[in-house]
UniProtKB/TrEMBL annotation:
Keywords: DNA-binding, Phosphoprotein, Transcription, Transcription regulation. The modification 4-aspartylphosphate is found at residue 58. It comes from Streptomyces viridochromogenes. GO terms for molecular function: DNA binding. Coiled coil: none annotated. The keyword Cell division does not apply. It comes from the Bacteria. Residues 153-218 form the HTH luxR-type domain. Residues 7-123 form the Response regulatory domain. The lineage of its organism: Bacteria, Bacillati, Actinomycetota, Actinomycetes, Kitasatosporales. Signal peptide: none annotated. This is LuxR family transcriptional regulator. One of its GO terms (biological process) is phosphorelay signal transduction system.
Amino acid sequence: MAGQPIRVVIADDEPLIRAGIRMILISDPEIEVVGEAANGREAIEAARAHAADVVLLDIQMPVLDGLSAMPELRRAAPAARVIVLTTFGERENVLRALEHGGAGFLLKDTAPAELIGAVRAAAAGDAYLSPAATRHVVERLATGREAARSEQARVRVAALSEKERDVLALLGEGLSNADAGKRLHMSEATVKTYVSRILAKLDCENRVQAALLARDAGL
């Protein structure tokens, strides 16, 4: 993708929200908004037609909601990374979106710089875990469900080496590869290698799922 803009599709049923997101994103010369959609069906078609790198996907939309659209979206545009747009009132929906392979989520009132950062992170192959929003929501999502998943998570994590568990714990904190490397005195490239091994061993599709597993396991 070097030298090419990040191709983004915005899917939200509210035109004003789409317009606001577009204005923020196009302020970055390395981001191009290639399509917009007012429902999940349109989002799938736009992502496929425009070869989107990132799709910003609202949960609550007519015709086909964001959660229902995700499996088909991933089949239609497998290279596209999906960032879910949400509110705190949709906690369980957010958890389902992450379990469906979403690359992260953003609150609709997120700061412009955070929105751009999330798109950049997703396009680079990372999940976006916002220290200000994602961590707080993930912690609240776990309430009432953690007990049911914690034992299974601990068994899965037990297959990791000590160093891999250290890296996984930092994923659960929302750290980037670079920040995790500083914490563990490793190079960013070494951390990236560890992350790839962790995802393979835990059968996780992305960093968000691994972060949820880390929290379930109590890391």
